[in-house]
């Protein structure tokens, strides 16, 4: 016969300290589109729409102010490489601006999505 059998030590489980329950519940609320999940998704959509409208408005204001700036600064009479300067600026210099706005939008939109995921994981 062997020696006395050792019983495993008992451990107390406290459900209030469990972190996984809230995370799973929040993801289920988003996936099943409950009232809370719909509010969270609606907040993300509003944040993305607000970002797009703000950056779009800034872009439109900058691009629409260029002809006024050309008129005020009398840039229209300058010729570079046989092309009038306003046409050169509108044809070439606008694209880096649009690229920069696009990159900024993507970075900020991804930040909004990351904030949403962190909120859903709490």
Describe this structure in words.
The chain has helices at residues 20-31, 35-73, 85-121, and strands at residues 79-80, 83-84. It has 122 residues and is mainly α. It has a two-stranded antiparallel sheet with strand order 1-2. The longest helix has 39 residues, at 35-73. The mean pLDDT is 80.
Topology:
Blueprint: H1 20-31, H2 35-73, E1 79-80, E2 83-84, H3 85-121
Compact summary:
By secondary structure, the chain is mainly alpha-helical.
For the biggest β-sheet, the strand order reads 1-2
Structural class: mainly alpha
Alpha carbon gap, first and last residue: 53 Å
Mean pLDDT: 80
The quaternary structure here is: single chain
Helix residue percentage: over 70%
Using the alpha-carbon principal axes, give the shape. elongated
What profile does the largest beta sheet have? 2 strands, antiparallel
Task: Note the total helix count.
Answer: 3
Q: Helix and strand succession?
A: HHEEH
Low-confidence residue ranges: none
Q: In what range is the share of β-strand residues?
A: under 5%
Rounded radius of gyration (Å):
29 Å
The total count of strands amounts to 2
Features:
mainly alpha; two-stranded antiparallel sheet; 122 residues
């Amino acid at each position: 016969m062997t020696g006395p059998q050792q019983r495993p030590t008992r451990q107390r489980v406290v459900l209030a300290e469990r972190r996984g329950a809230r995370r799973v519940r929040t993801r289920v609320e988003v996936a099943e589109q409950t009232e809370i999940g719909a509010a969270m998704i609606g907040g993300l959509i509003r944040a993305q729409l607000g970002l797009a409208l703000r950056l779009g408005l800034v872009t439109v204001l900058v691009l629409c102010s260029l002809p006024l700036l050309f008129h005020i600064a009398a840039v229209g009479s300058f010729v570079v490489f046989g092309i009038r300067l306003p046409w050169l600026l509108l044809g070439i210099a606008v694209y880096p601006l649009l690229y920069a706005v696009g990159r900024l939008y993507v970075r900020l939109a991804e930040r909004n999505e990351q904030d949403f995921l962190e909120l859903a994981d709490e």
